[in-house]
Amino acid sequence: MRRFACRLLDTGPVVVLAVIAGAGSFTHIRDTAADHGQTGWMSWAVAVCIDLTCVMAARERQRDKTTGRARQSRITWPVLVLSGGIVLSLAANLAQAGPSVWGWITAATPAAAFLIAVSMLERRTAARPEPSPAAVPELTPVLELDVERQDEPEDGPAPALLDYARRVADEHHAKHGRPITRDALRARLGVSNQLASDLLHTLRTA
Asked: Whole-model pTM above 0.70?
């Protein structure tokens, strides 16, 4: 409960700002569309399309960052769409402004605040750094690491490798009812033909 309250206090102001600023920007866009012939429900549709396009493009840009696609190019399709939505939104707000510098500033404030709020929400919902991946258990026995050493000791295979080969051979014999072959032993251990032959020879003469 406390965690939820802290999160609400942290995110709540940004959400309220986004709603209020979006409503102001929405009104300016709707009025501009109505002044230029898009009357009735069409003026509302135009305003909804522009504002939701900005939100959708911001979310898609965040998704590109999460998936690493944004690293391939700084100018992506979501960035172009977001830029176009910003230009249209600001243009509609400035069209409703009074013919003065302060008139332009105050009219552009809702659009700017809306875009800032969207960017804040986008930043807060960005993917958290991925935890370091847990160590993946080795599917093959650790003894196989020694197999990479192609140089075989002068006194024969390593005892640990020989013991493991003996267990593999015993399991094969118990399962199939016949001694293991060199190729089967090589496939199980992932060793060279020569080392598989030496291991098999040692097992048979032991």
From this structure: no
